Amino acid sequence: MADRGDAIEIIQREMTAFARRARATAARMHPELSLVSYTLLSHLEYQGGCRATDLAAHYTLDKSTISRQVAALEKAGLVERRQDPADHRVQVLHLTERGVGVLAQVTDSRRIAFHERLAGWSGPDLERFAEYLLRYNAGAEGGLGEGGAE
What we know:
Pfam families: MarR. By secondary structure, the protein is mainly alpha-helical. It is built from six helices and two strands, in the order ααααββαα. It has a single domain, classed as Arc Repressor Mutant, subunit A (Orthogonal Bundle), CATH 1.10.10.10. Helices cover 65% and strands 10% of the residues. A two-stranded antiparallel sheet has the order 1-2. The longest helix is centred in the N-terminal third of the chain and has 26 residues, at 4-29. The two termini are 23 Å apart.
């Protein structure tokens, strides 16, 4: 490799290809669940529910963008709004039973796909790759983050 600039160009190009493949794979795994929808459902499951404004803040997205995404998830029967017991003015988003099932199905499919794609990698290579991804994503915390256009 010629220099640092060349390496960064290759990384940028390959990360873009990775994101494009991830979107295409998500569409094949479940027709109702885009990569964005999968990400939002995963976050709701991990958090045990949260407000739409919390999703917008976490992913650094406009409230109207989250509103459209949540409306689509509600229409598909994957998410429901529940009144916050501590503050009845607040609506908290939760996965429905169907949402839990769809998320589990897609998560299993994604896990299998990753295992297949990385089957030929050695243990040390996998560990290094995992460390690099953790380091890269930790460095992005103040930047575009998960919801950005990286």
